[in-house]
């Protein structure tokens, strides 16, 4: 390996020396041309220039100048090792600086004290705290006066108490709670910060007091929002409890989480204000980082206390304890990553642990806000709920991605100078935004389509309205699937384009591939096109009973290429549209049901007609069957003369799907009427004359033959059904 490297270096030195000679001679030639333009260059120089212009010489120089593959690999390995050592040395230097900053803390505070006394007219640091307390007290006073005025106005405009079952009033209560909580804070901010800006202060004083006021206001906004969401200050009004808790939990859990949120945000904004004050007082970066990391121990302590004392699991199991230990280890590792200066890994770890609970809590709040009185999970306005829920999730994730992008640009400025790396980072971040926007659009369209399907399922009206509703229930699921595929395809193409992938060849290749697939799957294309025409012709809808060839059943659902039919005996058929052919729809408008009854030859036909007419009138009066009958059962007349009796024809017109039930009821009523009036049904009878033995044999044979023919007729009828 060393010999190869030495040879490569020798070749490079020779090439560099030759090029140096060429450049030197060229410059010398130019100088001599300026002094004596008539003097020609030496012949050897001309020959060297001609050799350098030769393509073969140029190719040989390029080949010799390129390092061997082994040398390149060794250089890349050395580069990666060097990068790792540089990163490791930076971490060690950062930690060493933090440790060395510990003895310098008293000196930094002394320097800050002298800076304050020099810049602010000899005032001590305590004067800054007194000034901060004065303006905070001014804000609290203005807030107190505003609360008194607001309280009097609310007592004059008292409304009845609302409960969770009264959704409109509950929304009104939540809105009033948000206004009553946020408006006094706005007054506090205007009174404190506005009064501070009304005077002229030294620049350093403004840089010290304003961060503390802003931190106080931000902390109070967070805890007031937590109080609204958790409903920790529920009151009694007119004997009824105002319930406005947006996260389902009991009072103990609500109080627990409210206190932890107050502690955590209090320490966080205190650290933020302290960091701003130290920056204004020119603390060294290491001392500033040391103090901030020390305050970060308070955040870690609150997080660990929350993990071990949260009231969600009253019965501590082994899995629960293992989860607590893993969370403890995870939080400690995050704090160590922060102290080590590994900002990118730290923020990725923070996002991994806080983003899922935040997104879940956001969804819970929105669903609880839109919960109806009957079903807490059923939204009154699905489209608005989806817009708010997904919109909030999109905003949260976009803010997290934007902050992570800022961290990457800040910590990897050298990496961002590389065009390829910069394009990949921008493409990934932009892809996240595109996918979030596609998810928002899809869920909005899905919620709108589902709302329309649900409305079509429950709305009534005349037959035309029911027909429109059935058609909507048939077509909207297909439209929903088509939109899902379209949005996904467009989003993926935009993400690939953002990553620098040329999507033009992909689209062209997909077109060629589609043509090949089209030739190879003509049956699939036929099914899809046939389905489109079936839907256009409104041949059948979901819930209708149809028959096509050997397939019959109730239409349950559709896909792009097939329809699912549920047979009345239970089996479900998945039939491609291309094989349906002519469709017999048995669920449109009305159904005429015909049946035959055989009576004996000595029956009075007119009497039978009167009895059946009475049965039909009784059926119309029946509260269960009457609304389903369009034309009641009637006797049409004599259909045929059978072997054992007269075949009488009967018919009735009913609404689709009810003919079998009404026919069975008509059978029972006709039998009762015939029995009460002495009308007998036809039955096989044989009269034989002769000696007794022969008569018995003939009668038995005739009876067996009649029974066999009856069984054959019943079997044929079953096969038809």
Structure in words:
Helix 10 (285-309) packs antiparallel against helix 11. Among the domains are: 2-67; 450-585, SH3 type barrels; 591-682, Alpha-Beta Plaits, CATH 3.30.70.100; 684-721. A hairpin with a 2-residue loop joins strand 3 and strand 4 (551-558). The chain is elongated and about 135 Å long. It is α+β, with helices and mostly antiparallel strands and 721 residues long. Strands 6-5-4-3-7 form a five-stranded antiparallel sheet. The longest helix is centred in the middle third of the chain and has 40 residues, at 419-458. The chain has helices spanning 2-35, 43-53, 55-65, 69-100, 105-119, 125-156, 167-197, 203-230, 251-280, 285-309, 318-339, 343-369, 382-411, 413-417, 419-458, 463-498, 503-520, 522-537, 605-621, 659-676, 692-720, and strands at 236-237, 240-241, 545-548, 551-558, 562-566, 572-576, 584-585, 591-599, 629-641, 646-654. Mean pLDDT is 75; it is low at 1-40, 66-79, 161-165, 236-241, 373-379 and 413-417.
Helical amount among residues, as a percent range?
over 70%
Largest sheet: 5 strands, antiparallel
* Largest sheet strand order: 6-5-4-3-7
In the CATH hierarchy, the third-tier topology of the domain at 450-585 is known as SH3 type barrels
| Spans where pLDDT lies below 50 across 5 or more residues | 1-40, 66-79, 161-165, 236-241, 373-379, 413-417
Q: Would you tell me the structural class of the helices and strands?
A: alpha+beta
Strand residues, percent: 5-15%
**Would you state the CATH class of the domain at 450-585?**
Mainly Beta
